[in-house]
Write a structure and sequence with these properties.
The chain is of the alpha/beta class. The chain has 7 helices and 5 strands. A 5-stranded mixed sheet has the order 3-2-1-4-5, sandwiched between helices. Helix 3 links the parallel strand 1 and strand 2. Helix 1 runs antiparallel to helix 7 and helix 5 crosses helix 7. The protein is elongated. The protein starts with a helix and ends with a helix.
Length: 293
C-alpha cells in the first residue's frame, strides 16, 4: 500500500495534469469555431468549381486536345498517395485513422499490381507509414513551422505535385484527408486528385439545357482552371484537417479531464482509507501502551 506522502504526491500530480488538459480543451474549443467556419465556407466554392469543371470536361471529352491534367498519361500503373496529417498530437485517434485509410488504399492498389508511393504532409503520419514498409515515401512537405497552414501551403504542395506529374513520376495521385463532420466525428476519405476525375452524370446535368459559349475555347480555359482545381482541393483538405484536428483535440482533452477527475476521486478515497487506518493503528498503540503501564 502506498504511503500517505506518496498518495498526496499522486493526487497533486493528477490535479496538475487535469488543469493542463482542461486548458487545452478550452483552447481547442475556441479554435474549433473558427476552423469549422473556414472549412464550411470553402465547401460551396469547391462544389461550384467542380460543377464548372464537369461542364468544361464534358465538352472537351476524350479529344486529343484535352489537357494532360484531364486526360492523364494514358496509364494508371504508378500511384501517388498524398496523405494529409497533423503536426501535433493530443487529438485522439485522428491521425491513426488517416494512416489506416492510407495504408488500406495502398495495400489495395498493390494487390492490383500497381506501384505505390507516398507524399506525406504533416509530421504525425510519417513514422507509422514508414514503419509499415507498405510503400516508399517519395516526398515530404513540412508544415510544422506554419501556425495555420492555408492557401500558400496548398499552392506549394500543388506546384510540387504538378511538377512531379509533368516529370512523369506518377500516373495517378490520390488525396487522403479527414472530412470534418462534428467534434466527435472526422471521417478519412480518399479522392482522386490527378488527373482530375471525369465528371459524374448528375454534375454535368446541373447546367440544364442552357447553351454556353466559352471565350477562349474550352481547352484554353481548362489549361488555366485545372491547376487551380488541384490547389483548391488541397486548400479544402487543409481546412478540413484544421477543423478535424481541433474537434478531435477538444474531445480527447475533455475525455482526459474526465478521466483525471475520476482518478482523483479514487486516490482521495484511498488516501482517506489509508489515513483512517494510520489513525486506528496509532490509537491501538496508545491504548496498548497505557494498559502496559
Amino acid at each position: 500500500m502506498a504511503s500517505l506522502k506518496e498518495l498526496k504526491g499522486r493526487i497533486k500530480s493528477v490535479k496538475s495534469t487535469q488543469k493542463i488538459t482542461k486548458a487545452k480543451q478550452m483552447v481547442a474549443a475556441a479554435k474549433l469555431r473558427r476552423a469549422q467556419e473556414a472549412a464550411e465556407a470553402a465547401r460551396p466554392y469547391a462544389e461550384r468549381l467542380n460543377a464548372v469543371m464537369a461542364s468544361l470536361a464534358a465538352k472537351v471529352g476524350d479529344s486529343a486536345s484535352a489537357p494532360r491534367l484531364l486526360s492523364g498519361t494514358g496509364s494508371d500503373q504508378r500511384h501517388l498517395l498524398v496523405v494529409i496529417n497533423t503536426d501535433k498530437g493530443l487529438c485522439g485517434g485522428l491521425n491513426a485513422n488517416i494512416v489506416k485509410e492510407a495504408l488500406k488504399k495502398a495495400r489495395g492498389l498493390i494487390s492490383d499490381g500497381k506501384q505505390v508511393e507516398f507524399y506525406l504532409v504533416g509530421k504525425k503520419g510519417r513514422a507509422p507509414i514508414k514503419r509499415s514498409n507498405v510503400a516508399d515515401v517519395a516526398e515530404q512537405f513540412d508544415t510544422s513551422d506554419v501556425r495555420d497552414p492555408g492557401f500558400d501551403e496548398a499552392e506549394k504542395i500543388a506546384n510540387e505535385l504538378l511538377e512531379m506529374f509533368e516529370a512523369g513520376k506518377f500516373d495517378v495521385a490520390h488525396l487522403i484527408y479527414p472530412i470534418f463532420k462534428s467534434a466527435l466525428a472526422q471521417e478519412p476519405v480518399t479522392q482522386q486528385l490527378i488527373p482530375v476525375p471525369p465528371p459524374e452524370a448528375d454534375a454535368v446535368s446541373t447546367g440544364g439545357d442552357a447553351v454556353v459559349e466559352y471565350e477562349p475555347g474550352e481547352e484554353e480555359i481548362l489549361e488555366e482552371l485545372l491547376p487551380r482545381y488541384v490547389r483548391t482541393q488541397l486548400f479544402g483538405a487543409l481546412l478540413e484537417l484544421a477543423a478535424s484536428e481541433q474537434g478531435a483535440s477538444m474531445t480527447a482533452m475533455d475525455n482526459a479531464t474526465r478521466n483525471a477527475g475520476d482518478l482523483i476521486k479514487d486516490l482521495n478515497i484511498e488516501y482517506n482509507r489509508s489515513r483512517q487506518a494510520a489513525i486506528t493503528t496509532e490509537l491501538i498503540e496508545i491504548i496498548a501502551g497505557a494498559e502496559a503501564l
